[in-house]
Design brief:
It is found in: Cell membrane. This protein has 371 residues and is mainly alpha-helical. Helix content is 77%, strand content 5%. The chain has two domains: 9-315, Rhopdopsin 7-helix transmembrane proteins (Up-down Bundle); 318-361.
Length: 371
């Protein structure tokens, strides 16, 4: 995981070849950037954690209650919710790091950094799988491409294999964080960050970041654009009678793509620019470096909000999930009513027994009095 809190760096403010004391490097003090991260990131991470736990937790509970995933979409949505939850569970660690520095040791630093990268990448790849599955489902409904290898792969029998490939690719991308992350002392605090060995050089770090951008943004975006464009063209060919449903489906597709672009594009643009800065030293002024660090903090928080929106975009709008949720709510309500009725019956039986006992005692007293 990149450390967007900001460290102090040396920058040459004067690039002239004439000798001057201004040619010596100056320290770029970033105490204000760390102060901004100390109150901005914990607030954003707490909001993402609360909203994301509620939505994704409900998805996992509903599908776990039914115990059997009937379609490939159900399987992808379940894996997406699990990946979102695992990603959200990493946020308290980074909130504490932004506020007080890293205080949990090197092992936890490695695990948390790797889990963050793995689950973030897995979420993006699963979004691509969901888009492709929707496209293939529409093609099957129209009787197209029934014998293609994609249709054979994206079926219920092979869905688990696709999910294994996705998790494996995400794990391979998070492996460098597991190996290279360390706790270093800098700017009067401990910092958890990936320390690349000199043998890898700047090119190795840049190659890893390019792979993260490709698998975590460009590939899912291209898959979504191609699949949803094809689906939009197919929906336009529907008869006039279903125009209302057609435009509703098109609006959903536009919202899904729009939310993905709005939340993920700024973060990846900043990430690519910082990667180019490590290779070509584009940033030479302290003010520019501060702006770039603050932009990384804001855009990364914006990218994480997609974990909160995934249940709404991909699950709650689906009719099958709404049916599952309605059945679960009905069974939960019936169970509460049965338990309440059972308690009322038990209390009523207790009252009847108490009344019979009291009447028996009264009759005894009356008979004794008569005698």
């Amino acid at each position: 995981m990149d450390n967007p809190v900001g460290d102090d760096y040396d920058y040459h403010d004067n690039s002239s070849f004439n000798f001057s004391y201004d040619d010596y490097p100056t320290i770029c003090e970033k105490a204000d950037i760390r102060s901004f991260a100390g109150y901005f990131l914990p607030i954003m991470y707490a909001m993402c954690l609360l909203v994301g736990l509620a939505g994704n937790g409900l998805v996992v509970i509903v599908y776990a209650y039914h115990k059997r995933l009937r379609t490939t979409m159900d399987a992808f949505l379940t894996h997406l919710a699990v990946a979102d939850l695992l990603l959200l569970f990493m946020l308290p660690f980074w909130a504490a790091d932004a506020q007080r520095g890293w205080e949990l040791g090197s092992v936890v630093c490695k695990v948390v950094s790797a889990c963050y990268t793995v689950n973030f990448t897995c979420c993006m790849l699963l979004l691509a799988c969901i888009s492709l599955d929707r496209h293939l489902a529409l093609a099957r409904a129209q009787g197209k491409d029934r014998g293609s290898w994609l249709q054979r792969m994206f079926c219920r029998r092979h869905c688990s294999k696709v999910c294994v490939v996705v998790w494996t690719a995400a794990f391979m991308l998070g492996l460098p964080d597991l190996i290279l992350s360390e706790v270093r002392w800098g700017s009067n605090r401990n910092v958890c960050l990936a320390v690349y060995p000199p043998s890898m050089g700047v090119g190795g770090k840049a190659a890893l970041e390019i792979a993260e951008v490709l698998l975590g943004f460009l590939v899912p975006l291209l898959v979504m654009l191609v699949c949803y464009w094809s689906m939009a063209r197919a929906l336009k060919g529907l008869p006039v009678e279903s125009r209302g449903k057609k435009w509703k489906a098109l609006r959903v597709l536009l919202i899904v793509v729009g939310v993905f672009v709005v939340t993920q594009l700024p973060y990846n643009v900043v990430k690519v620019y910082r990667m180019m800065d490590t290779v070509f030293a584009l940033v030479t002024h302290c003010g520019t470096s501060k702006v770039l660090d603050k932009a990384a903090q804001v855009t990364k928080s914006l990218a994480l909000t997609h974990c909160c929106l995934n249940p709404i975009l991909y699950t709650f709008v689906g009719s099958s999930f709404r049916q599952h949720l309605t059945k679960l709510a009905k069974r939960f309500g019936e169970g509460r009513r049965k338990r309440r009725t059972r308690r009322n019956d038990v209390s009523a039986e207790g009252e009847v027994m108490e009344m019979s006992f009291n009447s028996h005692s009264a009759s005894q007293a009356t008979n004794t009095f008569s005698i």
